[in-house]
Amino acid sequence: MLSKFLFASAATVAALSGLANAQTNITENDCASSSEYSRCNRDVADKWSSCVRNCNGNGNCVVDCGCESHQKYINCMAESCWNQVYSCKYQLFVQQYFAICPSAQEPIPFWPPPDNAPNRCSCDLGKVTQTTLSSRNQQVKCMRAVTDKLTGDIGNIPDLSKLNDGLDIANRASDCACCGASASISASWDICPHTEPTLAGADMWGVFFPSDLPNLYTSLPNWAWSSCDATLQDTNCKDLGFTDTDKFYKPGDFPNNGTSTLYEVGGTVSAPPSGTVLTWSQASATYTVTATGYDRKAVASQSEYRATATGSDETFPVQTSDSGAAALRTGGLGAVVAGIVAVAML
Ligand SMILES: *[C@@H]1O[C@H](CO)[C@@H](O)[C@H](O)[C@H]1NC(C)=O
Ligand SMILES: *[C@@H]1O[C@H](CO)[C@@H](O)[C@H](O)[C@H]1NC(C)=O
C-alpha cells in the first residue's frame, strides 16, 4: 500500500521542496510582532527544505515533512501573528493544510473563527472547508454502507463492476457521490452568498473527493458532478447520512453567484485569542506556543520573553493507509496540491 510513496522521483521531490515557501501569505507588517514572525517562518521554511532533503525521495516522508511544517507555520501564527488568525489568509492556509496533510485533524487553533470574530474574513472559509471535510466523511460512510451490504451479500468483493447487480451498485454509489459533491459545493453559495464562488471554495470538492475507495468508483466510470441533476432530484441526501448541511443544490439549479472578493471585517484582535499560552495537538505531536508581541515594549525589555514552539514528539507516524493522500486531486488550491498529487499518484 505504501509502495506508491516509495519511489518519488528526484523531480517530484524538487517540486515539493519548492513548497517550503507555502506559508500563510500574511504580510509580516500586519503581525503583532513582525520580526518574530519573519524569523519563525524562515526557520520553518529552512527546516522544511532539509526535512525533504533527508527523505531521499521517500514520498511518504515528504508528505510528513509538509504536515509538520504546516503545523509549525500555525505555531508561528499563534506566537507572533495572533492578531491575524481570523483573517482570510489564515483560513486559506488551514484549507491548504487539510489538502496536503492526510493526517490533519480538527481541532485546529483559531479555526474555524467564532461567529462575529474581530478581523474575520468576509466569507467564513473555515466553515466551508469544514463542510467539505464532513461531506467527505459522510460520503465515505455512505459508500461503506454500499460495500458492507455487498460483503454481507456475497462475502467478498473482487470487482464490483463484474457483479450482476452492478447497475444497482452504480446507482447507489452515484447517490453517495452526488450528495457528497452537492453538500460540499453548495456550502460555498450557502455560507458565502456574496463572495465569488471560486474564492469561497467552490472547487474544493475536487481536492477532497474520496475517489480512492477500493473498487467502488470503478463501478462509476463516467461519474461527473454535472450528471447529478436527476440523481439529486430523486435522492434524499439526509436519509443517506448527509446530516451536517441543509443545502443540496443540483448542478443546474444554483443561486446566483456572488461577486465579492475576500476581505476582512469586524475590527481588530487586540490580545491573543487563546490567552498567552496555546497548547494543541495533531496525531504526531503536541505543541505549546507562547504568544508574544502584545506589549512590544515589555517584549523588547525582556529578551528571554521569547516565544517557544516545541514538538513533544519528533517522529511522525508512517501513514498506515494511503487513502487520505491518494484522495487528493487537483483543484483550486494551486501548485501545492498539484505537487502532493504528483507524489500521491506515483
Ligand atoms: C499564497 O499566495 C500564492 C500566490 O498568490 C498562492 O498561489 C497560494 O495558494 C497562497 N497560499 C495560501 C495558503 O493561501
Ligand atoms: C458561477 O460560478 C461557478 C463557479 O466558479 C461557475 O462555474 C459558473 O459558470 C458561474 N455562473 C455564472 C452564471 O457566472
From TrEMBL:
This is Extracellular membrane protein CFEM domain-containing protein. The keyword Signal applies. Keywords: Signal. It comes from the Eukaryota. Residues 1-22 form the signal peptide.
